[in-house]
Amino acid sequence: MWAFLGSDVLFFGTLIATHLVYRGKSVSGPAEGILDIPITTISTFVLLMSSLSMVLALSGLQRGKMGEARFWLAATALLGSVFIGFQMFEFTEFAKEGLTPRTNLFGSTFLVMTGFHGTHVAVGIFWLWSLFFSTFNGKIHQGNALEVEIAGLYWHFVDIVWIVIFGVVYLVGAYGAEEHVAEGAHSAVAILGLG
Amino acid sequence: MEHLAESHEHHPGPRLYITVAVILGVLTAVEVGAFYLELSSWIVVWVLLLLSITKFLMVVFFFMHLRMDDNRFSLLFFVPMVIMVSVVVALLALFQNLTR
Fold first, then answer.
1. What angle do CA A171, A175, A179 make, to 5 degrees?
2. Which of A88, A94, A117, A123 is a plausible cystine mate for A99, CB 3.0–4.6 Å?
3. Chain A nearest-CA residue for B50
4. Total domain count for chain B?
5. What is the complex's ipTM, to 2 decimals?
6. Is B3 in the A-facing interface, judged by CB distances under 8 Å?
7. Domain that holds residue B41
8. A52 has a chain B CB within 8 A of its CB
9. Given this model, what pLDDT does residue A182 score?
10. Do B55 and B12 fall within a single domain?
């Protein structure tokens, strides 16, 4: 799993790098200013709390408390679903305002990057429900908690990718868009004070 | 595998996990608060980046248990991370020069 996560770091790295390189270079349609920080803060908090419920599920299973493990596995999957709901709401609002993957460079790079992250979350939700139901037929028990720990690694990875996207793309990106539009210098390097 | 089995016994309990989650929540609130502060832009941006890195490392070391796992797992994860950050920095520097 760690080898897969290492490769996924490079995968998301290329998507984030591409988005940052093309920041501030869209010549038409809505761009960085369209990001809704309050809504995304809530969805970020939901995903952070799903990491807590994931690790509590593993902790319960390792201590042989099956009821606790089942409760927190289901809670993690549900919190993940809430996050996906927020993302669908965000994408729908963007579409209403005219931002699609074909609108401009911002739309292409942002929606591909966050779309792939959402796909990872969706895969994780299916994985969590399969583990949840496997606790009832005896396939998942205290003796093979490693199965849940591996799924947990994947889930926490999805969380840390979002931590980076929220910090670098949403907060820094939107902040840069508001602060530097007048100066015409909202490239990533300029925002960092290095340009 | 034996090492992994041993490391499970040393995993921290729910109290530490909840403490880490509370700190992560507070750091997220500070991030959003900093976003709305009217300070010099590059100061806010670097604060946001530092807070993101702190949250990232807390999840990796406490929730993913990397601080108590085999060092080879750390290598598998952090070597691609260094490569990724280098690629991002190099591309930003390159494109900044090309589009100036």
1. 175
2. A94
3. A167
4. 2
5. 0.81
6. no
7. 1-69
8. yes
9. 42
10. yes
